[in-house]
Design a protein that fits this description.
Blueprint (H helix, E strand, L loop, with lengths): L5 E5 L7 H10 L11 E6 L11 E3 L2 E11 L3 H19 L5 H15 L5 E11 L4 E4 L4 H15 L4 E4 L6 H11 L6 E10 L7 E5 L6 H8 L3 E9 L3 E6 L4 E6 L1 H4 L12 H22 L11 E2 L1
Antiparallel strand pairs: 1-6, 1-7, 2-4, 3-4, 4-5, 5-6, 7-13, 8-9, 8-10, 10-11, 11-12
Helix pairs in contact: 2-3, 5-6
Length: 307
């Protein structure tokens, strides 16, 4: 279910009732873009059932799904149309619009083309684990997650704070040590994908794909000052993933051992409950061990979003 994951620590919180949260979700239910609307964002049914509930609870875990739809007008079309209009104005008046006037013309062009633009829609899963006091956002970067976290703070209320979980060791430092020593932390193995980057003005980069990393060459790059920006790993032969320098867990894939028995799902839920139970069960074991491998959770967390 989750391809990416960013972890946020839940601070002191007086949670509203499930009915109150559902009512707030319903008020922010997703509606597709209007003819001249560039973007629409809202909550959709995690189970995919039309007009169903917007917060699903499975085994004490809460699952939400946010949908974002955007309309994009090709930039070259806008540029060509703008140039033609600027040329016409210049020919008619002898003066070529600049600055604010040119910007207004561009905005009018985009607005006029939007009704013909095709919308692109994407969804992001959110997992709230009340027992572990964590919120997991299925975004691929902190930048992509920020807006979702702001919406969650408003949705969940009760004075909640959501703090991006940070570890005592930076992921880059830890990954460099694992690669240099050719030894993964307990419970993990290093796979065949890695990216190393020089943290200077040149930012020279070396990328390995489908290549063994247990070689002297990798250690030499690290000795020369390059730091890992991403590293593919597997946890207990059950979940493969890529850890990046920001602490984002990406390309999450549950392996066959973890999926054994997943086929025995009931027809009434189309496998949703089973999928949630397996994914949250595996990841709720992986994340604490990964945090431990990174030196444990940083004690001086700074809240990034507050109610």
């Amino acid at each position: 279910m989750f391809k990416n994951a960013l972890l946020y620590r839940i601070g002191p919180w007086e949670p509203p009732t499930s009915a109150e949260i559902e009512a707030r979700l319903d008020a922010g239910r997703f509606v597709e873009c209007g003819a001249s609307q560039q973007e629409s964002i809202g909550w959709v049914e995690p189970r995919g059932e039309k007009n169903g509930v917007l917060m699903e609870g499975v085994g004490g875990q809460l699952i939400l799904k946010l949908c974002i739809e955007r309309k994009a007008v090709p930039s070259q079309v806008v540029k060509n149309t703008l140039e033609a209009q600027l040329d016409k104005v210049e020919a008619d008046t002898g003066r070529r619009p600049k600055g604010k006037k040119a910007k207004e013309l561009k905005e009018d062009i985009v607005h006029g083309l939007l009704p013909r633009a095709f919308p692109k829609r994407g969804t992001t899963l959110v997992w709230i684990d009340p027992r572990a006091k964590l919120v997991i956002v299925g975004a691929g970067s902190v930048k992509a997650s920020d807006r979702i976290v702001s919406m969650l703070v408003e949705l969940l209320g009760g004075g909640i704070t959501l703090t991006l979980l940070q570890t005592e060791l930076s992921p880059a430092t830890a990954m460099a040590e694992w690669l240099k020593s050719r030894e993964a932390p307990a419970g993990f193995t290093i796979d065949r994908e890695c990216e190393l980057k020089q943290p200077d003005s040149e930012k020279s980069l070396v990328r390995y794909a489908r290549h063994t990393l247990d070689i002297e060459e990798v250690g030499e790059h690290i000795a020369q000052g390059k730091l890992p920006t991403s590293l593919a790993m597997t946890w207990n032969s059950r979940v493969s993933f890529v850890l990046n320098e920001a602490g984002t867990v990406k390309k999450i894939k549950l392996l066959d051992v973890a999926l054994e028995g997943a086929g025995s799902t009931g027809k009434d839920d189309n496998g949703f409950d089973t999928d949630v139970a397996i994914a949250t069960g595996e990841l709720s074991q992986l994340f604490p061990q990964l945090i431990d491998a990174l030196g444990g959770e940083l004690a001086r967390d700074k809240p990034v979003q507050t109610a």
